[in-house]
Amino acid sequence: MRAYWQLTWAQLLLFARNKNMIIWSFFLPIFMMLALGTFMGKGGNQFSMSVAIEDKDHSTYSKQLTTMIDEKAGVKVKRIPKQEALKAVEKGDVSIFVRFDKGLGDRLEKGKAYPKGEKESIRLYFDKSNPTVSQIGTTVINQAVDQLNKKAINYHPAVKVAEKDIQSRPLRTIDFLVPGILSLMIMSNNLNGVAATIASWRERGILRRMQGTPLKSSTFIAGQITARVLLNSLQAVAVLLVAYFVYDVKIYGSWLLLLMIILLGTLTFMSIGFIIASLSRTPETAGPIAGLISFPMIFVGGIFFPVRDLPGLLQPVVKAIPIGYLTDGLRGVMNEGATLTQLWLPTTVLTAWFAVAFAIAAMTFRWDVK
Description:
Oligomer: single chain
Number of helices: 14
Helix content: 55-70%
Strand content: 5-15%
Radius of gyration: 29 Å
Number of domains: 2
Order of helices and strands: HHEHEHEHEHHHHHHHHH
Number of strands: 4
Largest sheet: 4 strands, mixed
């Protein structure tokens, strides 16, 4: 037990003296969060579309319609002439161009059905090569026109729809990203960091000198894990404090449960890192192997976007790897206030991954290169 605590303390001292490790482990996740938070904004509205409008009618109705479009959430209206607007649509600077022709106000003033064969009073110009933007843009414009049409003919609906928001807590983009950044930090620090460090120590003969002592491989691995668990806990707290004070990111669940999931994630990826280090003869081979394993997890682990948006072909892969369960567990606690009972699946899978990986790491651990 004494050897275990001495190893843990020695590793913490090594961390404290390694300036590069402090910069990459502490400041990189915070910088990433600040960069993504600044780029994507604090708000929860992820929809953004620019609409160019040319008003040839200059009636009360055309001005009212312009105001209605401008008031749509995420829509920015620019008033520019046709030729300039068409070029902006071609370049992608404007999502859609709307033109109100003369006679629009007269048609609405009459309040009669639109006669067949008569020219349309409103024209839409958009780029069909971008179907998502064009579909959303036409829907937004058509909704505004429909509202104005109904108002002009004094339309009274026979049936109304009541909308109820079942999300009790507002979820913004940054609220979704912070748990993902924590998950990425845990995976990178432990899987990539451990694999390269242990392989380097083995090549330099540090582990060979330890082998001459009564130290067991399981004790050595346990000491490394404990030191990194403490380090990751400090890193997570630092990231969460910055997220709270800068972006007002709240943790709705238990801090104790959050730290427990961070612990499980650290144990899991450290054990995998030890397996990679045992299979690699040099740090030059350990780094690429660790990168080959961790890099795809960034895209299929739900770090930056929901797992449900991934193709169906990748869903079995997502359900088999630990990063997705770590991210789900962190988001469950932070964004939903989930309890341990509700997070039984992520915690069970992470525990199973840790138990199997630690057992393999202890059996395959090598003190020497040979």
